[in-house]
Please model this.
Amino acid sequence: MKGKIYVAVVSGGPSSEYEVSLKSGDMVAEGLDKERYEPIPVRVSRGGEWELAPESVKKNASCAFIAMHGAYGEDGTIQRIFESHDIPYTGSDALASALGMNKFLSLRLFRDAGLLVPATLLLTRSEWRKDHRSARERAERMIGYPLVVKPNNQGSSVGVFIARNGGELDDALAETLGFYREVLVQEFIEGREFTCGTLDHGFPESAFPLLPTEIIPRVSSFFDYRAKYEAEGSYEVTPPENLSGETMKTIRSAAVFAHRIIGASGFSRTDMIMDGKKNIYILEINTIPGLTRESLIPKAALAGGMTFSKLLDTIIRAGLNRRGRAPW
Model:
């Protein structure tokens, strides 16, 4: 390889995860191997205005590293923008990104492929506004208490509630549907929470798992936004303790399988929970996991002997390989 590869590190965007994205972008720019890569920070404002237009990104960079989470960055929007300008980028393509962001659709794909998922009901804002009681009774009948309420298209455990009775369910639905058009009402599964990252080299058959991480929340009863992003919000163990080799293998295999099922590329992180009978349920897949100091993928990679700069190198190489742009 001759000369450095210029990488546009794109962060921010019109998402509730704007601040987290900026942290990820800063970490990526800082963590790149400077002997091989030259970062070009590109921030997108909350209003969707680009610090450096896509046309300029194409002229000045060989690849775009997408460090954006949630709407616009993780739902296929920015991927379509880069595709329309023929700009190689990291991570999953527009379709896989959209599927990963839509929890209801991805969970159906996982279920149909044979993975265990919680019983799930999709409710819309219009259904709720039309008849509160009918919507609540439908959730009670199909799911039962306790249950989980969360936005259908949202990352980072934003807007997640546990409801144990009708009053709490009404409050959770009113709160969540005040901001989002669709919510999931899910079976509450009590157990140990795990997450497992998957990397690949740009081709589905090359996917391989990182070490799983067990997440033990400190500030909440489950892995919500505070537990995920506060410095001491959760206690994380990589690899998990008191876990059989068979269960460890099951978790890692499920992460790779989920990655392949939705057509993810480069990297992903799959969240799971194990109930008292040791059944592993898939909760969701993240196609652009966080890359902040508190994020789980970098910690899991390091626990397996992969430095942060090597992790970033693997992700960039996968993006360039998949699009036939590798300069090596």
Summary: The chain has a mean pLDDT of 91. The first strand starts at residue 5 and ends at 12. DSSP finds twelve helices and 13 strands in the chain. The CA atoms of residues 116 and 254 lie 10 Å apart.
